[in-house]
TrEMBL record:
GO molecular function terms noted in the UniProt entry: ferric iron binding; oxidoreductase activity, acting on metal ions
Highest taxon in the source lineage: Bacteria
Name of the protein: DNA starvation/stationary phase protection protein
Ferritin/DPS domain: residues covered: 23-162
InterPro entries, A to Z: DPS_DNA-bd, DPS_DNA-bd_CS, Ferritin-like, Ferritin-like_SF, Ferritin_DPS_dom
Family of the protein in this entry: Belongs to the Dps family.
Organism: Nocardioides flavescens
Leader sequence segment: none
Length: 183
């Protein structure tokens, strides 16, 4: 995705720093937009004996992550950028694969979501480190969002653990592998 030229930025922030922060924010906007749509897809496609508990567990996650997208887009605008939220641009810019699980059991979807959350949280944590030298305000937003994502990830993983704490998805490298292992 081409870097956009900022017309202005927030007082006290060098333009080059603001430019990089906008790029980082756009990456997270893409990730959270994709995540809330993926979570809604899971919400619609889970089946099996634990359907209702997983179906109802996912909706608050959808709402929270959708709110993250809005906060990220508004921060981009605050820094003088223009948030990009169109599906085509999101797909063009993302560096992860499309969620590949359709109608399946709750365990299969939770296994796949374990890997999805691992990817999203890991990239947030990498960008939190970079923001330490660029913009503490945006870093604070990322820390708060990561806190919530890690909580949601724990909710998912609680369904995948045995009584000894071992995850059924351990060692899986793809959503399909994780779904099969969890199922």
């Amino acid at each position: 995705m081409a870097t956009q030229k900022l017309k202005y930025t927030t007082p006290g922030m060098p333009e080059a720093d603001a430019q990089r922060v906008v790029e980082i924010l756009q990456d997270r906007l893409n990730a959270t937009t994709d995540l809330h749509l993926t979570l809604k897809h899971v919400h619609w496609n889970v089946v099996g004996p634990h359907f209702i508990s997983v179906h109802e567990m996912i909706d608050p996650q959808v709402d929270a992550v959708r709110g993250f997208s809005d906060d990220l887009a508004e921060r981009i605008a605050t820094l003088g950028g223009s948030p990009i939220g169109t599906p085509g641009k999101l797909v063009e810019a993302r560096n992860w694969d499309e969620y590949s699980i359709g109608r399946d059991t709750t365990q299969a979807h939770l296994g796949a979501l374990d890997l999805v959350y691992q990817g999203v949280i890991s990239s947030y944590r990498e960008q939190i480190k970079e923001l330490d030298d660029l913009d503490l305000v945006t870093q604070d937003m990322f820390i708060a969002q990561t806190d919530q994502l890690e909580l949601f990830h724990w909710f998912i993983r609680a369904h995948l653990e045995d009584k000894g704490g071992a995850l059924s998805t351990a060692g899986a490298h793809t959503e399909v592998e994780a779904a099969q292992q969890a199922g």
